[in-house]
Sequence to fold (455 residues):
Amino acid sequence: MNLNAFEHLRLELRRGCLVLAVLAKLRSEYHGYALVKALREGGLEIDENTLYPLLRRLENQKLLASAWRVEDKRNKRFYRLSEEGRAVLAWLLEEWRNINGALEKLSEAPTGARRRKA
Amino acid sequence: MKRELTNQELLDRYIHAVKMMLPPDKMEDIAAEVRSNLESQVEDQAMALGRQLRPDEVSAILKQHGHPAKVAYQYREQPLGRGLISPALFPFYWFTLRAILALWLTIRLIVAVFALQGTSPVGTILLGLGRDVLLAAIIIPAGVTLLFAVGEYLEFKYRYSEKWKPEALGPVPAPSPQPPKPRLMVHIMSGIAWLIFWTLSLYSPWFFWVWGGRGIFSPSEALYAMRFPLWLLAFFGISQSWLSYTRFAASKWRQVLCIGMVAAGVGLAIFLLLTGDLLVAGPKWDPTQAKSLATLNQMIAGVLVLACIVAGLAFLRKFIRIIRRWSSPTRTAHLAS
Fold:
């Protein structure tokens, strides 16, 4: 089995889902490290070095808003979905469902093959 | 025996190393965020263990977070050669490119200054310098990028991300003293002295013409004609230092004034250089002084060329920083309630 090819494809697949997961999670407010933990707890392992710059890029695209605030006597930057981000997330989720539905259908065994099995 | 670094020292060194490789306009903000996230991670692990972390455990967190060069790289928006050079090699590519460009420019400037001592006209030397700088700005980045792209293709990768140790990062230098106010005061005082001298020369031509060798050398016609712009330049220079001293105007407006001044100064210097010799024979001219006059003119031209290049580079750097700062969206937007 070509493990390298699998790993490369798996990373490609995850990269697209990551933005969706981050946007979905940021419907509530999180600071960087808390978001890493929340995503991990949700089953999505993410490298800190990928997430933190991603948050900034999404903020540059005006999909997120951020503010520095003191929590537990420490200054932290909190991120949250902006109004524009909320709309984009809704569209992306819709797109995701469509893709998922299409993939479900496509990954089913072909009709001819099923008949032969029966 | 080497002293073991504390948790705080390890963290400080790491953040400093990341910060030094970040784009200047964002370095403070990004470094603060990286620090905040790392501190949260350290605190979280300490809470899970029910005790303070040991330095080796903090070191492991930093190592897992990644080499400072790699961390800083992730925050760059569109660095040159990003498509061809992978993150693993990019910091070395970037360093090599800048080092070669700086070395080449230094050597070429030294050659130009020596050329000014010869018989070639200043204009020809300047044109040659400009042409070479333009060519080098294309050829050197292309060559270095090609070299690294070949290295990338051949899968040459220095595995610094596996070998580096947070303990080996350099210490954070002591903070430099605040912008020295006495220095600004010296700028203001010397500027006023220059302004008085120049005002005298503006309204009393006899004063101007005898300046420089008591009439043996005199300023050229072009320099004399540029008295008023030079006076204005000195006036704005003093204003800029005064605004910095009193912090009267917002920092960005002081920077705009500074940029305007440098641009005007460079423009004026180039104009004067192109007009030829800035000192000519005066009313009490002594023909035996001809060689000294030529040397003096070459030295003035050399100093002006160097000043123009240094100021031009500083101007470009400041200009790019301001454009970036103004074009970036507000990073401290309040969250929607």
